[in-house]
Amino acid sequence: MSESPLDIDQIALTELVACHECDLLMRKPQLAEGQLAECPRCGHDLYHHRSQVVRRSLALVIAALLLYVPANFLPIMQLNLLGRTSHETVWSGVLGLYDSGMQGIALIVFLCSMAIPLLKLLCQLSVLLSIRWRVGRRLGLLLYRAYHHLREWGMLEVYLMGILVSVVKLADLADLSLGTGLACFIALLLVQVWLEVTMSPHQIWETLEEGA
Ligand SMILES: [Zn+2]
């Protein structure tokens, strides 16, 4: 897409798009299903027009919500230390921090690894359902905005790194076996990344705006 300089006065704002990387302003290309628009200056992907976005995203949100419970409440690891066996879950980690006097850290871990990821998924679910059932688009717009703010606070990736580091460190000290919870946690993370890629913000914003 390379076009002559834009005469901004004659173009409606809704017909324009700016590149996220280099801020180049250009006329919004009309894409067919499966096509991808790239910035002519820096080559950044502007957006992708995917087919069946709502249906595919709904399937992924439901899968993520189903994984959420075992990821947080099934044992991430089983620890045998000096004859004592303990099963550690994300939730028991939060409670453990709380009981050992680190209430502030317990609250942060609870918010970033449990509460906010769940809220994010519920926002995404509500947005998708409002599009699919054609109801409450205004609320959908509000929730989708809220979702974009929450994105910065859900830190499952950081939490997973923490788990992996502690697994490596504890492996020398104790008899350690990994649990189903960890598999669900990793699956939840992968499904969420897949969902982020599938649920193209450009298409979701446009659909919400059309129906509002
Ligand atoms: Zn660019």
The stretches of 5 or more residues where confidence is low (pLDDT under 50) are none
Tell me the series of helices and strands, N- to C-terminal. EEEEHEEHHHHEHH
Number of helices: 7
What hetero molecules are bound to the protein chains? zinc ion
Counting DSSP E segments of at least 2 residues, the number of strands comes to: 7
Q: How much helicity do the residues have?
A: 55-70%
How much is the average pLDDT? 86
Write the layout of secondary structure elements.
Blueprint: E1 16-18, E2 25-27, E3 36-38, E4 45-48, H1 53-73, E5 77-81, E6 84-88, H2 90-99, H3 103-132, H4 137-150, H5 156-173, E7 175-178, H6 180-198, H7 201-211
Zinc ion binds next to loops.
Short description:
The protein is built from 7 helices and 7 strands.
